[in-house]
Fold:
Amino acid sequence: MISETILTSFDCASLNWALSAVPQDGSPEEGVSLLGIALRAIFVENILLAFFLGMCSYLAICKRVDSSVGLGIAVIFVLGLTVPLNWVIQTYILAPGALSWAGMPNSDLSYLQFLTFIASIAAAVQVVEMAVDKFSPKLYAALGIFLPLIAVNCAILGSSMFMVERDYTFTQSVVYGLSSGTGWLLAIVSMAAIRWKLRTAHIPGPLKGLGITFITTGLIAMAFMTFSGI
Amino acid sequence: MTSTAAPTVAPAPKAPLFGDEEKRIILDPLLDQNPITLQVLGICSALAVTTRLDVSIVMGISVIAVMAMANVAISLLRNLIPSKIRIIVQLVVVSGAVIIVDQVLRAYAFDLAKQLGVFISLIITNCIVMGRLEAFAMQNPPWRSLLDGIGNGLGYAWIICVVGAVREIFGSGNLFGIQIIPQAMYDAGYVNNGLMVLAPGAFILLGVIVWVLRWLRGYVEN
Structure:
């Protein structure tokens, strides 16, 4: 019986986000507190463990704890920048009727969403990379190699898309960007720590590497599910 | 973008349109060089959309279409793209292809498009697409790139269809929305495995599939 309820609530939560015009739990969008958004993005709907986003760089990097921390911080940084940036683009350029400030009230450029979002992310990553290189060579030495990886990280584009679907306001989108990055950092660092221990474990040959990483990630995801009571 | 073992293609001036080499390009990714289990690419969307078989099939077809289009386009442009900005060019080409697929889906399969939601847009950042563009389409002529795109797309599609089918059968007792597990079993006390529908179930299932496929092929990491 319990599994049935979890099942239905998960279905509502993940796949039918598109239908979230129907207010869930009867709470209006304005009623969602910033703390609630942050907790939900970090723990309950962790971008990596519940939505599987950012797996590629996760699998490639999570063998070492220090580089995981570096990549995680870079992701928080870029997410905190690009989610609000894409909010501005979406609200003032792409959404139906958004160009009314430019005298074009009937415009609907939302079909260009993917292209503009990915372009603005790639551009933002490039700018961040150059700025960090110029102003803080020390930080660049730590983060530099991770920044190009981030442009093609699904978690970045995914967060922007979720931000649009959930109709966040500007402040909410800043909080959402930062906290979903934090959730990603939490997942990748804990995984890196576990994989470090796993090196010495006796694992059947074909299960080594990718296979055992998936199964362990599944167990971490299960642990994070217990947060859904918050 | 980890190990992308690019098949090195010897230049063959008078190659037949569908010779052994072409056959190898399209068949290798299905098992021997499977993008998910062996090249470790494109895991992101492999799990999120696979709670039901029909959604998985639509996702698989979309990825095949995007990969075929993007591979051909990049292969045609491969001598014109300056290597410094190639990632941006690839991203733009891929997102163009994804926009086409998204608009087609919205026009002809609106309900499914709604369910796939943001995950269609995430094909853009799917590492399979970028990985194959980098490893294959940048060095090979359009026809072979088309085959490589279709082959890798198929290799991805069949894995997510297997995951989708298993998750739907054990998670909700259905297949294509039709009840598969007989009612008599529910009456006898059988319960659906709720874990299969949730994220951890997907991770563990894919881990097991990777294990089986690598075991069959005798592949051991390091």
Summary: The longest strand of chain B covers residues 174-175. The first helix of chain B runs from residue 20 to 27. Chain B touches chain A through 63 residues (CB under 8 Å).
